[in-house]
């Protein structure tokens, strides 16, 4: 998933983007949101969600199964 | 009695000294303007103040058709007509990107259904249009510090669409005449010239409600928060556009080089997480479980500016912040869609004076209960402190994206009904307002103030046995007007941010901001 698309989808649900930066290994983006969720979007398209609000955010992104 | 007074004055001096320049002990311009001999006697008729703080509605969005108010019908064509980023008027509004309704709303209003809207405000509940009900949750909209200033565009209010992430949605309105709170506004006072204290979003405006200040992140350029520092043009209010940003709002959402949370001089203006639980950031591994991980880039260091709470405590005035669902979230964690607690809506949880373990935290940061049950119990029992702030839980706050108007409006009207029956009602003042405009267009130019605000116009309803009846108050006010009333009523020192704002307003030859008393008739009954 594209990082801008993911940001737009989550923001549309009233969950504000609070941080956006390249990840520590510089192979993707790390996004933080106001509900505590952290979304990692690798340049190869892999997406994982963690943090307090992970379940809600994963649902908005249509990710299957449990969040990371 | 004389001795007691002397002790209080002495204590005030000590604490004010410790706060340094952040306070002027009752000597700000506002305090001087109201230092009449009869002031205390008149205001003493009010002995209980209640502030109810809802979310994210501009005045025009909800009360733009209120009779007698400066509503949408009075908006000049120059503000109704929106302009693209290059300054040219749109031929039509851009669509609402990804659709008008929130995910899960059935039937959805898709992006395609929002194409080709004329360049003007439109009603979401128009029976010939989208026919939405107050119970519909819509897409959220950007409501951020720099974008709000770019949208206001020097008071022209013609770039709300240009600097938004939600296309036409910023121009949406509701005919609010069937809401329960509309009836409350008809019965008491609706302020139609009341502005949010700060530009942008909930985080900063909650800080303005309690502190009239912008939080600060020391040495942000040498720690993990560094990438959160915004990149701004030389004017200090315009975000630097990214090279790949769409040139026209018709082509998509703007992109910026760095649309961060911190100003280039390290003030926090967009959402940061509280340093204490409940916070969006978990505790550090092996860290204190009552704290948020301080190494996370979005954890704000504890703040040390004095708040209105500190000043009330200084004068031994009882007060509390009632957070809806506060204890439930501490005990069980957050849940969505109910209560959907919002961490950044609890402004005092950012301050060292209210750190876990502090006596002041236990005394003043109280549980509002699920659906406000604990707050309502205090109302019914006549046990409210002299000053109360009530923050409804997420699903009851009217915020776009995750809450609708119906649930929050009904809840607040129910709270008002309880307040009217409270044993404390005969000497009560209630202010119901919104923290900010939620990215929604409003046609009135905010007064020119300081670098932080005021921002866009928001609804405010003043409820009291001493309120004028069926009155629209045109007095210019902002969120700090609530603090001005509390300061004047309880004879507190003036927060530095209010002093600075007064000076800035005066320097721009704007009318002084009111303190709510214009909405009251303070005579013995």
From TrEMBL, chain A:
<protein>
    <submittedName>
        <fullName>Uncharacterized protein</fullName>
    </submittedName>
</protein>
TrEMBL record, chain B:
<feature type="signal peptide">
    <location>
        <begin position="1"/>
        <end position="24"/>
    </location>
</feature>
<keyword id="KW-0378">Hydrolase</keyword>
<protein>
    <submittedName>
        <fullName>Acid phosphatase</fullName>
    </submittedName>
</protein>
<feature type="region of interest" description="Disordered">
    <location>
        <begin position="271"/>
        <end position="304"/>
    </location>
</feature>
<dbReference type="InterPro" id="IPR017768">
    <property type="entry name" value="AcpA"/>
</dbReference>
<dbReference type="Pfam" id="PF04185">
    <property type="entry name" value="Phosphoesterase"/>
</dbReference>
<feature type="compositionally biased region" description="Polar residues">
    <location>
        <begin position="271"/>
        <end position="280"/>
    </location>
</feature>
<keyword id="KW-0732">Signal</keyword>
<dbReference type="GO" id="GO:0003993">
    <property type="term" value="F:acid phosphatase activity"/>
</dbReference>
<dbReference type="InterPro" id="IPR007312">
    <property type="entry name" value="Phosphoesterase"/>
</dbReference>
<dbReference type="InterPro" id="IPR017850">
    <property type="entry name" value="Alkaline_phosphatase_core_sf"/>
</dbReference>
């Amino acid at each position: 998933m594209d990082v801008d698309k993911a940001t737009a989808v989550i923001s549309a649900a009233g969950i504000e983007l609070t941080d956006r930066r390249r990840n520590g290994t510089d192979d993707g983006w790390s996004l933080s949101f106001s509900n505590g969720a952290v979304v990692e979007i690798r340049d190869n398209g892999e997406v994982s969600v963690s943090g307090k609000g992970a379940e809600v955010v994963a649902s908005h992104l249509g990710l299957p199964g449990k969040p990371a | 009695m004389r001795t007691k007074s002397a002790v209080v004055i002495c204590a005030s001096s000590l604490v004010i000294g410790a706060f340094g320049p952040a306070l002027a002990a009752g000597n700000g311009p506002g305090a001087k303007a109201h230092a009449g001999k009869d002031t205390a006697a008149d205001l003493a008729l009010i002995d209980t103040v209640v502030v109810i703080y809802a979310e994210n509605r501009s005045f025009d969005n909800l009360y733009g058709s209120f009779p007698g108010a400066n509503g949408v019908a009075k908006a000049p064509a120059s503000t109704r007509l929106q302009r693209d980023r290059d300054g040219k008027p749109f031929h039509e509004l851009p669509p609402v990107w990804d659709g008008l309704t929130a995910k899960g709303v059935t039937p959805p209003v898709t992006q395609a259904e929002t194409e080709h809207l004329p360049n003007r405000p439109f009603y979401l509940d128009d029976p010939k249009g989208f026919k939405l009900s107050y119970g519909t949750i819509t897409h959220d909209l950007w409501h951020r510090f720099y974008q709000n200033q770019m949208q206001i565009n020097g008071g022209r209010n013609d770039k709300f669409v240009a600097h938004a992430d939600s296309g036409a949605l910023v121009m949406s309105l509701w005919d609010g005449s069937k809401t329960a709170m509309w009836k409350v506004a008809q019965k008491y006072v609706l302020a139609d010239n009341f502005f949010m204290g700060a530009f942008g979003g909930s985080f900063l405006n909650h800080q303005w409600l309690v502190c009239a200040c912008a939080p600060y992140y020391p040495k942000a350029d040498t720690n993990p928060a560094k990438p959160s520092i915004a990149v701004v043009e030389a004017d200090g209010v315009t975000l630097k556009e990214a090279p790949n940003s769409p040139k026209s709002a018709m082509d998509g959402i703007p992109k910026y080089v760095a649309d961060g949370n911190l100003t280039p001089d390290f003030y926090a203006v967009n959402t940061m997480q509280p340093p204490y639980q409940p916070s969006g950031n978990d505790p550090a591994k092996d860290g204190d479980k009552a704290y948020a991980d301080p190494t996370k880039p979005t954890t704000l260091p504890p703040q040390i500016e004095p708040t209105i709470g500190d000043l009330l405590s200084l004068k031994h005035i009882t007060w509390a912040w009632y957070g809806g669902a506060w204890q439930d979230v501490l005990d069980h964690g957050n849940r969505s869609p109910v209560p959907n607690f919002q961490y950044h809506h609890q402004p005092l949880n950012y301050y060292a004076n209210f750190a876990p373990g502090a006596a002041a935290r236990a005394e003043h940061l109280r549980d509002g209960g699920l659906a406000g049950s604990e707050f309502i119990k205090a109302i019914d029992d006549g046990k409210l402190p002299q000053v109360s702030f009530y923050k409804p839980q997420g699903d009851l706050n009217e915020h776009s994206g995750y809450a609708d108007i119906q649930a929050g409006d009904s809840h607040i009207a129910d709270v008002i009904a309880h307040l009217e029956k409270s044993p404390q009602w005969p000497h009560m003042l209630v202010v119901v307002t919104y923290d900010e405009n939620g990215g929604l267009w409003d046609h009135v130019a905010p007064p020119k103030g300081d670098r932080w605000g005021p921002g866009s116009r928001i609804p405010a309803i003043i409820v009291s046995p001493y309120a004028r009846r069926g009155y629209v108050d045109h007095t210019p006010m902002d969120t700090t007007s609530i603090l001005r009333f509390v300061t004047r009523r309880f004879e507190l020192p003036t927060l530095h941010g209010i002093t600075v704002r007064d000076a800035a307003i005066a320097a721009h030859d704007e009318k002084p901001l009111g303190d709510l008393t214009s909405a009251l008739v303070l005579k013995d009954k």
